[in-house]
Amino acid sequence: MKYLPAILSTDHPGLSATERAYLAIKRRIIELDLAPGTQVTKTDLTRLTDAGTMPVREALTRLQRDGLVDVLPRSGYRILPVTLKGARDLCAFRRLLETEAAALAAERGCPQDDLARMEELLGQSYELRDTESIEAFLRATLEFDAIIADNCGNDRLARSVIQVFDELERVLRITLGSLPFSVSAAHQRRAVWEAVRDRDTVAARAAMDIRTRTSQQQIIDALAASPSIAEASITVFR
Description:
By secondary structure, the protein is mainly alpha-helical. It has helices at about 15-30, 40-50, 55-65, 85-110, 110-120, 130-150, 155-175, 185-195, 200-225; strands at about 40, 70, 75-80. The protein folds into two domains: about 5-80, Orthogonal Bundle (Arc Repressor Mutant, subunit A); about 85-230, GntR ligand-binding domain-like (Four Helix Bundle (Hemerythrin (Met), subunit A), Up-down Bundle), CATH 1.20.120. It has a three-stranded antiparallel β-sheet. β2 (about 70) and β3 (about 75-80) form a beta hairpin. It is globular, with a radius of gyration of 18 Å. InterPro entries: GntR_C (IPR011711), TF_FadR/GntR_C (IPR008920), Tscrpt_reg_HTH_GntR (IPR000524), WH-like_DNA-bd_sf (IPR036388), WH_DNA-bd_sf (IPR036390). One of its GO terms (molecular function) is DNA binding. This is HTH gntR-type domain-containing protein.
């Protein structure tokens, strides 16, 4: 694929020290190794990433712009919490992008190899609180959607979809721990695949809209109601 979600991309040859530090810290935030609300110092992050002080400082400046960390005067940095408003806005933006990407991919048609891979990914499920199966499901879900974005024929749209996935991944990691596998959501993913396979633009747009709306509601409900909400340091802003 031309554009890969960060969860599927582990090889970063030829990057500067700052870029490597940025990606390393960002992955630790997204994967919840640095949990929302955690306080860290540049020294902590230098040890974690094996990077120098200057690359870590520059990486933290970028992460501030990304909305992932905040400066604590004379105390270091804080990993910013997820908020309901932020999650809702992100999911709504995802829906706008992915419905268009699905319609375009259906219109253009996907290679048979991609369709076969998507169908294979549809078989992935997970068990509640089983971190290994949740990780596999998360990778499969994001790869499924990335294949659609990769086939939409619009590079700017595809890049935007992948950027949203990288932000969405942290939210999904928080919510999937308390959200049982949904058979109906699996049927919705299959409906998207069938519409793209059949090159039915209208059906692809409608199926992706239903799927992403359902996903948004599940995510918001899980963030608001899960017993782990305090542990995840979720800030509730209505």
